């Protein structure tokens, strides 16, 4: 269970770390499954010739269990509201980052962003043309700025979930976070209404402090859908394994509840809009 202090930190900072969200042994099982999907030798670093490989969705029992443990289910309820989110039956994507000798900001896919929550009409048409979501995916989707959308009520996304399947220290390509940047996003999305927009975030929250999503295998980070973040390079010695699934809502967030009983995700959006 998240403490009251952790919940307030989520509202203010945009994320909360859940230590031991799933067993380390389960993380190892998931990691082994991903190794099997990669065309490399875990014991021979000379075969690690790519900086990052992005694998698609997986529905294996091990992955589904890792994303739906009692600790995570309780935290989802606390942040999103009981009955207001859909259990994860597919997990991914998996950006697997191999060690490289480059500065952190020189990652191939470096770029400050929020994870989009739904597709534009053009995106729906493009994605219905036979996209395989379970194999290797492009590192950066083509035409992403025309395909992906976010709106003020975060249609289609309740949380961004980061599941650490390997120990992740400061040199192991931890996700880099602009702390509190989720509060800067609502005023930028508000003018676009339900249709939403692709939001360029290079400068959003640029004056905010930074945090790294470090932790042990089995830890999880639960992030507000508007949290601005970026990948960085792996300057360590071992590959970094992580999943970044979207926890989907059963409906839309309500920023004007008659009873005033707002869940933490809604409270943060309202705070960004200066509604209290």
Automatic annotation (TrEMBL):
It comes from the Bacteria. This is Phytanoyl-CoA dioxygenase family protein. It comes from Micromonospora carbonacea.
